């Protein structure tokens, strides 16, 4: 919270009001104007554009804090990509979960190709280390990216690649929670803003899944 207070030190709203508004926006199917009206009913006058700026400013801080305290996922990954509309064009959200449904990582990219898939895998591996097994669909781009990662490794150290539509149902079902939330947003107006808001939505999902390690976690709700 000290990091958040420093970032918002020049604003005229209490930090708990700011964090509450951002959490509601990321967690529930609310538009910014819905949230503006809800806060007005509670005696807090704040414009929807201000609410949006709060989210853009706060989410990177939350991401930095959560990644320091995120539980390590399993070593068997299920990876897939889904479509996200940005400025009227389809972009690609790469995502992976482990065999128990815990979120491993995510990455929004402009293209769906081997280079984008490789960027995603390298980002996830920097945070969590290499997996033992990765399950993908029949995507040639994902296969090529994993082949690049395995280049020069002995067989016993290589990542095992499985191609199974049935086994990848777990990550495909997990996509739905993200798509359900962004449906109310009616599309993103910029790629950078889409990256930030999607990061916030993913963080809230990880907290709900119990992926944040906290000393008092047994006594805290996801909201707390």
UniProtKB/TrEMBL annotation:
Ranges where the Integrase catalytic domain occurs: 69-224
Alphabetic keyword roster: DNA recombination, DNA-binding, Transposition
InterPro entries linked: DDE_dom (IPR032874), Integrase_cat-core (IPR001584), IS_Transposase (IPR052183), RNaseH-like_sf (IPR012337), RNaseH_sf (IPR036397), Transpos_IS6 (IPR047930)
Task: State any GO BP term from the record.
Answer: DNA recombination
Q: Could you cite one Gene Ontology molecular function of this protein?
A: DNA binding
The protein's matches in PROSITE patterns, at most eight in alphabetical order, are given as: INTEGRASE
Query: What PANTHER family does this protein's entry cite?
Result: BLL1675 PROTEIN
Function noted in UniProt: Involved in the transposition of the insertion sequence.
Q: What is this protein called?
A: IS6 family transposase
Give the organism the record lists. Answer: Serratia symbiotica
What taxonomic classification does the UniProt entry list for its organism? Bacteria, Pseudomonadati, Pseudomonadota, Gammaproteobacteria, Enterobacterales
């Amino acid at each position: 919270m000290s990091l958040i207070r420093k970032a918002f030190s020049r604003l005229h709203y209490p930090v708990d009001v700011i964090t509450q508004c951002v959490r509601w926006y990321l967690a529930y199917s609310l538009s910014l104007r819905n949230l503006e009206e809800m806060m007005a009913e509670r005696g807090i006058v704040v414009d929807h554009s201000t609410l949006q700026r709060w989210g853009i400013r706060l989410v990177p801080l939350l991401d930095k804090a959560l990644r320091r305290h995120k539980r390590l996922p399993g070593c068997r990954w299920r990876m897939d990509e889904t479509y996200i509309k940005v400025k009227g064009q389809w972009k690609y959200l790469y995502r992976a979960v482990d065999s128990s449904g815990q979120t491993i990582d995510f990455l929004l990219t402009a293209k769906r190709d081997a280079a984008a898939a490789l960027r995603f895998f390298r980002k996830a591996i920097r945070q969590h280390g290499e997996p033992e097994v990765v399950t993908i669909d029949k995507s040639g781009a994902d296969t090529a990216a994993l082949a690049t990662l395995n280049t020069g490794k002995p067989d016993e150290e290589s990542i095992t690649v499985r191609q199974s539509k049935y086994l990848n149902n777990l990550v495909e079902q997990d996509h739905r929670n993200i798509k359900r939330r962004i449906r109310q947003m009616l599309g993103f107006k910029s790629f950078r803003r889409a990256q930030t808001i999607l990061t916030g939505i993913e963080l809230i999902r990880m907290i709900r899944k119990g992926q944040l390690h906290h000393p008092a976690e047994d006594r805290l709700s996801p909201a707390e």
